[in-house]
Amino acid sequence: MADELLTVQRALDVLSLFSATEDTWGVSDAARRLGLGTSQVHRIMATLAGRGFLVADKRTRMYRLGPALIGLGHLAAESDANRQIALPVLNRLAALVGRSAVFNVRQGSRYVLAAAADAPGDLRWELTLGRSYPWYGGAAGHAIFAFRPQEEIDALIASGFDESTETGPHDATTLHSLHTAVRERGFATSTGEVNPHVTSVAAPVRSGSEITGCIAVLGVTHQVAATPELVGHLLAAAAELSDALSRTA
């Protein structure tokens, strides 16, 4: 039984390697990242590919996420009670500011897109529900992790920045300064950190006394600026969602 549980854990570790910026993996690189033997990782990836959770490129011998995960991801997103709570708030915010509004939640050392209200003519963010991003990338990450305990942030910094971002901060001094500014202002901004075409303004969301996520307004075709009017709407939406989530916690 212990061996079976370990195998399941290893398979989940392999799946967790895949991200928006590292969407293909070879056996050797995956084994090196996880500190496992190549034969063990090859068996795991081949098994996952056989069930449709990964897809192997026969030419390059690289793996990417497979179609079996699509249905599971949409099912998880649709059944998430927090998403149902967040959507009315996001829809009102998107209508007020004329930009897409999204709700992200913290998941360990990452954050995940949990709900989206798409603005007309913008990218369809709802199609990427469930996608996760590194803690140090984008306004959403800054709005959430600026309020985490300092020892946790120091440990995350010490673990390195394995997943690259376009222009995101990758050193302790910059991150500490950025987090201090977020706590003072109550919101975070970013330009092209995770996606070179996206600007964002994000505000933290609480569930009870803890920051568990954030609301963000996104600009793609036109940059979004942190004007007093937009920030006011954003902070009001974050407070409204925080109250709703705290009541159900």
UniProtKB/TrEMBL annotation:
Q: Which domain of life is it from?
A: Bacteria
HTH iclR-type domain: residues covered: 5-67
Entry's InterPro entries? GAF-like_dom_sf, HTH_MetabolicPath_Reg, Tscrpt_reg_IclR_C, Tscrpt_reg_IclR_N, WH-like_DNA-bd_sf, WH_DNA-bd_sf
Query: What Gene Ontology molecular function terms does this protein carry?
Result: DNA binding; DNA-binding transcription factor activity
Q: Which UniProt keywords apply?
A: DNA-binding, Transcription, Transcription regulation
Sequence ranges assigned to domain IclR-ED in this UniProt record: 68-249
- Organism expressing this protein natively: Actinosynnema pretiosum
Key word Transcription regulation present: yes
GO BP field: negative regulation of DNA-templated transcription
Q: What is the name attached to this protein's record?
A: IclR family transcriptional regulator
